[in-house]
Amino acid sequence: MKKNITILGAGLVGSLLSIYLAKRGHKINVYERRPDMRKEKISAGKSINLALSDRGWRGLERTGIADEIRKVAIPMYGRMIHHVNGEVNFQPYGEKDQAIWSVSRGGLNIELMNLAERNPGVKIFFDERCTGVDLENSVAKFENQLTKKNSSVESDVIFGADGAFSAARHQLQLSTDRFQYSQYYIEHGYKELNIPAAENGEWNLEKNALHIWPRGGYMLIALPNIDGSFTCTLFFPFEGGESFSKLDTKEKTIDFFTRVFPDAVPLMPTLADDFFRNPTGSLVTVRCFPWSYNDTMCLIGDAAHAIVPFFGQGMNCGFEDCTILQELMDENETDWEKLFKDFEQSRKPNSDAIAQLALENFIEMRDLVGDKKFLLRKKIEAWFHEKHPDQWLSLYSQVTFSAHIPYSVALSNGKRQDEIMKKIMEMEHIEERWNSEEVEKTMLNLLSWLA
User: Helices in 227-310 by DSSP H: which ranges?
Assistant: First the structure.
């Protein structure tokens, strides 16, 4: 039976979900709080570039739109690490030709909305703020941000794809007994900055890499754009000795960047202006349960599980939500209450796992990627994987380059691998015999013992 479906939120997940559902013959109305970004100038400042990886591509390929998105994405084959002394070294992400893809959040969102509206069953309404949901009767209430006119929309099903501060989730919280909810802000915020294209339109840095300036406790990153520019993001404490609170003048800001990121400053001619013009964003992890109410409403994407961006999996996880929902609908599209329960039971352990992994990966990116012992450990792992690919796949590859390993399984595998590598790194003279037969046998024995 075909449904009239309301989706709250025309962001990345809401737009992709509308394509999935429309292809199944449902009628979709999408309501978005913001203006139509295709008609408005996209404001800079809070649009951390995204890194599409295998889970995200799988979600796009299932709808047949992956080739369209590749036109606005750039492959990044590894991390380019920038040290204070000017030394730069490259760390590949995976095996040959494995890459994550840099894409502008706004640019991708525009592409997805355009592709969604090509389906005759999809309509998107902008400037509509959700003010409440009648869960029993599947009615969503809105206030138009321009006219201040109130309206009510009745449908068969409502999907809450309205982000980390979801109105749909708030209604579940008010209406559901024993609703579990938590939000956790890290002590760091983020600031968007910019490296413009060179005069000839080319990139001022290696374009096929994610650039990181790790400084222990904080970091600067840069991801390439198709116009030759890089979107940079400073992840920095709100308070403390070196923090946003201390950089309160343009002079202090330039002095700090010149001292800490010396090779980046010459590439950022509008650094001081960007720093004070662009807002400082917060980074939050949201966990909640349940995600659904009877057969009338279900949360998806950040509305159900917002995470910090340090594993590059927020969007990919949301797109995987759409993929899993589609697979469950292939099995059963008649009992929507069961469908929603199966969906949340499947995704909740995995969304919790990637939330934990994202927080842990921040430490790796800001503190460890320049550490000699960390680099040796990664070299040992890569060597052992090459000899025993069926026995060892790095945690990063499990998360990023495998669309079929659940996040919760990757987390469990990662913990076991971490125990093994701690023992390996404690071996005497490991620096000299890291690729020896003894190390190989020890790892194989530990894998068997900890299986």
Answer: 250-260, 271-277, 302-305
Report CA 102 to chain centroid distance, whole Å. Answer: 11
Separation of alpha carbons 223 and 47, rounded Å: 12
Cβ–Cβ under 8 Å, residues 105 and 5: no
Domains of the chain: 4-40+106-183+283-361 (3.50.50.60), 371-449 (no CATH)
pLDDT of residue 372: 86
Helical pair 54-61 and 314-331, crossing angle rounded to 10 deg: 40
Query: Of 443, 299, 440, 434, whose CA–CA distance to 375 is shortest?
Result: 434
- CB 301, CB 161: distance < 8 Å: yes
230 within 8 A of 204, measured Cβ to Cβ: yes
- What does the block give as tokens for 87? 């030394």
DSSP structure class, residue 55:
H
For the chain, which residues score pLDDT lower than 70?
Answer: 41-48, 451
What is the pTM (predicted TM-score) of this model? 0.94
pLDDT tens profile 208-259: 999 999 998 999 999 999 999 999 999 999 999 999 999 999 999 999 999 9
What is the pLDDT, as a whole number, of residue 42? Answer: 57
Q: Is the CB of residue 153 less than 8 Å from the CB of residue 31? A: yes
